[in-house]
Amino acid sequence: MANIVLARIDERLIHGQIRLQWGKHSGANTIIVANDEIAGLEPLQAPFKASAGSDFAVLFRTIQQTIDNLPKAGPERKILVLCKDPIDFARIVKGGIKLPEINIGNMHFHEGRIQVNKYINVNDKDMEAFEILREHGSSCTVQHMPESEKECIFSLTKNLNI
Question: Exposed site from 21, 35, 102, 106, fewest CB < 10 Å?
Fold first, then answer.
């Protein structure tokens, strides 16, 4: 099985915080951006590769490619898997990939989402995806920065009307 050192939800995908904080903290040497849209649009990939600098190999994969190829990755690859939302991670775990923990970073406000905290906004589809992740053994924790305290998404949303 792949050496996944971090699985993170961040709508911004690769940016300075991923490179300088999470990438270094996790010890990753490879970033997989698992997103059907970006995997199919090469012009969108260049800014993300530039943001990662030379510290990481950066791969763009569809969700299905991620499911198919992660088990083939060698142990020398220390992989940070990035998705824009919990729905994509739910698809990945339903595809057979074990992810003990999903780190929840930035989920911006969009129409129909409710604010959980300064960085996290969710809707009913997001919460359904988090429930699927929990059913597949994934702990879903909100953690803005590596030094921040981890908080369970279900504890943070228990009093919200979603």
Answer: 21
